[in-house]
Amino acid sequence: MSFRRDTLTKPIFSWARGVLPAMSDTEREALEAGDVWWDADLFTGNPDWSKLLKVRQPTLTDEERAFLDGPVDELCAMLDEWKIFWELRDLPQDVWHFVKREKFFGMIIPKEFGGLGFSPYAHSEVVRKISTRSIAAAVTVMVPNSLGPGELLMRFGTREQQQRWLPRLADGRDIPCFGLTSPEAGSDAASMVDTGIICKGDFEGREVVGLRLNWHKRYITLGPVATLLGLAFKAYDPDRLVGDQEEHGITVALIPTNLPGVEIGQRHLPSMQVFQNGPNRGRDVFIPLDYVIGGKERLGQGWKMLMTALAAGRGISLPSLSAAGAAYAARTTGAYARIREQFGISISKFEGVEEPLARIVATAYQLDAARRLTCAALNAGVHPAVISGIMKLHATERMRVAIDDAMDIHGGKAVIDGPQNYLGNLHRAVPVGITVEGANILTRNLIVFGQGAIRAHPYLLDEMNALADADRERGLTAFDKAFWKHAGHSFRTLFRALGRSWTFGAFAPAPDAGDATPFYRQLSRYSAAFALCADLTLLTLGGALKRKEMLSARFGDILSELYLLSAALKRWQDEGRQKEDFAALEWCMATGFKTIESRLAEILANLPNRFVAGFLKVVVQPFGARVLGPSDRVVHRCASLALEPSAARERLTPDLAHVDDDGGFARLERAFKLVASTDAIAKRLRAARVRDWKEAVTKGVITQAEGEQLAAAREAVAKVIEVDDFAPDVLSPIYKKTVNVHQFFQELGEQRAAS
């Protein structure tokens, strides 16, 4: 018997059991999926920075590097995004053959099954490079290597299933897709009405126990061309053929699309992106039980399997595409701003251009830092569920801002569509990333903090499990142990937060990181403030916090900033503390600190318990939200990273797809290099108040060779500034090829007048 347990803890335990909201099976499975990692350190309020800095930087093997520099570059050279979009509405057939032959669909499949056996980081690098050449090709490659039959078979399939299906997926004999979303169930996948009834039936000439499936799925990427469909449905056993349970819950199975009753629908057109995507149906499709991934023992475990796989996949595919988009925006927008002149000077000199350009540059720096750090965890075998949610949400949202900024700076150049527009299709694709793999609104408001508070908190999950224990005495003992540890942790966090906030983090723990050391101190300060506010909010609101989505979103924003800023610091350290890159790091830190302070102020202003809100304000924000964001000096230095050829610019935008053709991006790269190399010549012309280079040669301002260099640069710039135009009959079938457009409208007017 324990005096503390029976006298102090027992009434708290009884009260907490009464107010703890019921947790559905799908919610519990989602919470239990994946792992915690650096997010758990951040939740302690006292992160161990040495642990972060010891994380091994992800690298490519020689084989992976050879693939990136060989087949990936070859694939990029085969891709013409405008032709894919405008003429074909699909990838060319030779591209389909190439990606199958070179095993792009089998990057994550182990070599023993015929795949490439690449690391998560290599997978990420491949998707990243292809994304800067073609969104359609990138999505086509990423889907088989993300959430789908391959990943699920590797993690949960039986040995027989792996030996049968993985080699076919690796070499492209089977093209996979995964059917989860249905008209009735989008973000709320648990409400799906797709069913699988366990029964006896004929399959390939023999009677077996299996499932009779009926489903309707939509938004399925690769669905129109898939030969193997991974399917999520709810399994039922009304005749108790496999046990005493009638409802088994969400289950996943493999469905060859040539089975009777499978109906492959027509294509969707997502935001004018032409990767294969569409609906499918199944009407009384019968499969044997051994088509359930993992066999009959995995009946009803589908949701947990999906969430576990998603914990890895969401950390790779869309973050890779988003980091690529931001880096591509930084490289193209910096180059365009450098070469484009208005009012006689480069538009890069305008502070109104510098501000969004700096935002693009810093976003590119931060997203790639976070991508690499997340890949480091995945390479180590960790599947960080909360961090993957943070990555999907913030990578796609920040890519959206970066692309919008790039469009604004480019102006009409990026608005007029055609083969020379290197930004327009990326801009159209942004909503796809925002929506798929969990809508960002849901992820921000419910998942990041909702899941993080339970999984990453040092004690909360143990307390919840104890409260839910059917054995009351055992639950009380476990709760007593976790609760008092939690109480001690909360008091330590209180004093940490108080001391660090009142001293502006001056004495907060930090590693010796040179110029970045003060940033670590501030993150230690904000981590303690976050942990204390989260604890007291959870204590006062309990299960009601689930319905306070705006509060949850603000906490999620702080946790996300703590992770993303940690990643930026880690990158700066791993790359050798490059002084030229420090401006990008400063911009990230100042902007992130401003967001954290703003969210803390919003939380304190909206906490229902005003006494607790007042107490927290005194502790964590006694002087109010004071961070204003990056200074003008930092903005100027950050923007300049993209404006000149340099090692810093190459570090910011590594391994993009560079194809030496006459496309818009290649033209821009050539013009940028020529303008940079002739900058000194152009300055001499301006100083002499001469615009014509031939006149400058005549006057002896420059040499003939220098004049020809300058002319080549100006010609290259003119080719970049050009935009596409089209004959009327190319854009619309209403115009006759033999009739001039003006004549067409004249004839149309005459016809109307006559009628």
Task: Describe the structure in your own words.
- By secondary structure, the chain is α+β, with helices and mostly antiparallel strands.
- It is 58% helix and 9% strand.
- Strands 1, 2, 3, 4, 5, 6 and 7 form a 7-stranded mixed β-sheet that branches. It has a two-stranded antiparallel sheet with strand order 8-9.
- A hairpin with a 2-residue loop joins strand 8 and strand 9 (345-346).
- The termini are far apart.
- This is Acyl-coenzyme A dehydrogenase.
- Its EC number is 1.3.8.7, 1.3.8.8.
- Belongs to the acyl-CoA dehydrogenase family.
- Its cofactor is FAD.
Beta-strand percentage range:
5-15%
CA gyration radius, whole angstroms:
29 Å
> How would you classify the helix and strand content by structural class?
alpha+beta
First-residue to last-residue Cα separation: 101 Å
Number of strands: 9
Mean pLDDT: 92
Please estimate the helix content: 55-70%
Helix count equals: 32
Low-confidence stretches: none
**Shape label:** globular
Which sheet architecture does the biggest sheet show? 7 strands, mixed
Pfam family, one: Acyl-CoA_dh_N
Cofactor: FAD
Organism: Bradyrhizobium vignae
Domain Acyl-CoA dehydrogenase/oxidase N-terminal: 79-172
